């Protein structure tokens, strides 16, 4: 069953593009390009590599292992992702650490908001 690499929604075989994200669907078998750490969960989408690296360091500072999954890597049988997609990739964390990672990012984003309100 094909799925969207961006929103992870699964679709029927007849569908080749995600109507939500305008991204080419990939076969489910391609989903296993992830290091072994049990199950990984796509916590956040990031718009570019810089944002991904920032969030990765925020989480890793809190002791949470992070895997950055880049949509641009053409590892789906040579089919490249749609260049018009707005997101660069996903931040993946181990499923058992999702609540902690969410809290960690919330604290981080809250601190950004506080910084902005000072301006
Ligand atoms: Zn989608």
Describe the structure.
With 119 residues, this protein is an alpha+beta fold. The chain has a domain at 38-118: Alpha-Beta Plaits, CATH 3.30.70. The chain is built from two helices and five strands, in the order βββαββα. The protein is globular and about 50 Å long. Zinc ion binds at residues 4, 6-7, 9, 18, 20-21, 23.
Task: Give a short overview.
The chain has helices at 49-61, 98-118, and strands spanning 17-18, 23-24, 40-46, 67-70, 89-94. It has 119 residues and is α+β, with helices and mostly antiparallel strands.
How do the strands and helices of this protein lay out in sequence?
Layout: E1 17-18, E2 23-24, E3 40-46, H1 49-61, E4 67-70, E5 89-94, H2 98-118
Antiparallel strand pairs: 1-2, 3-5, 4-5
This protein binds zinc ion (ZN).
Residues 4, 6-7, 9, 18, 20-21, 23 line the site of zinc ion (ZN).
Secondary-structure content class? alpha+beta
* Number of helical elements: 2
**In terms of quaternary structure, what is this?**
single chain
CATH class term of the domain at 38-118: Alpha Beta
What fraction strand? 15-25%
Small-molecule components bound:
zinc ion
The helix-strand sequence is: EEEHEEH
E-strand count = 5
Poorly predicted sequence stretches spanning 5 or more consecutive residues: 75-79
The Cα radius of gyration reads 16 Å
Q: What is the averaged pLDDT score?
A: 82
User: In percent, how helical is the residue content?
Assistant: 25-40%
In the CATH hierarchy, the third-tier topology of the domain at 38-118 is known as: Alpha-Beta Plaits
| Sheet with the most strands, sense and barrel status | 3 strands, antiparallel
Q: Strands across the major sheet, in which order?
A: 3-5-4
Q: What is the end-to-end distance?
A: 49 Å
CATH architecture descriptor name of the domain at 38-118: 2-Layer Sandwich
Structural shape: globular
């Amino acid at each position: 069953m094909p799925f969207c690499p961006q929103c992870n929604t699964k679709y029927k075989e007849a569908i080749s593009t995600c109507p939500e994200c305008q991204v080419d669907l990939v076969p489910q078998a391609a989903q296993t390009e992830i290091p072994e750490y049990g199950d990984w969960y796509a916590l956040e989408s990031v718009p570019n590599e810089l944002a991904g690296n920032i969030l990765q360091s925020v989480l890793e500072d809190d002791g949470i292992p992070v895997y950055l999954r880049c949509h641009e890597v053409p590892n789906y049988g040579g089919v490249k992702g749609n260049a018009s997609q707005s997101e660069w990739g996903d931040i993946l964390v181990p499923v058992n650490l999702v609540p902690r990672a969410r809290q960690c990012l919330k604290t981080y984003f809250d601190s950004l908001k506080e910084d902005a309100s000072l301006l």
